[in-house]
Amino acid sequence: MATYNQLPVYKATYDLLLFAYQAVKDVQRDYRYTLGETLKKDLITILTLIYRANTTRQKVETITEAREKLVAVKLQLRLLHDLKQLPLKAYANASLMTESISKQLASWQKSYEGRPSTV
């Protein structure tokens, strides 16, 4: 079993978190301390859930929770773009990153569905 920080999905999510930190610093103050902070907190939560899924017996449930949180991240990124706080190029890059994370989480979840719970 790979350590959590070596998992490709962990690395991709961490890269998105770095992107969010860089992008949010240029956001208007009103949005930076509400939407921007929520975005960063949600990404940190996803990283924590990836760690938990890698170490727990309830992998499917934990991965499902991470996927649900990623939906919120996608919404927040789109909202930042629609509010003219995230340029199109940055939004497109973030969308590609979230899509990659989503596919990896879905694949990981599928690989454990129907199996007995194991560590």
Summarize the structure.
The chain is an all-alpha fold and 119 residues long.
Notable features of this structure?
119 residues; mainly alpha; single chain; elongated
Describe this structure in words.
The protein is mostly helical and 119 residues long. Helix content is 78%, strand content 0%. The chain is built from four helices and no strands. The protein is elongated, with a radius of gyration of 15 Å. It starts with 7 loop residues before the first helix and ends in a 7-residue tail after the last helix.
Number of DSSP helical runs: 4
Anisotropy-based shape: elongated
End-to-end CA span: 9 Å
Q: Radius of gyration from the CA trace?
A: 15 Å
Strand share of the residues?
under 5%
For the largest beta-sheet, the strand count, sense and barrel status come to: none
SSE pattern, N- to C-terminal: HHHH
Structural class: mainly alpha
Mean pLDDT, to the nearest integer, reads 93
Low-confidence stretches: none
Helicity, as a percent range: over 70%
**Quaternary organisation of the protein chains:** single chain
The count of strands amounts to: 0
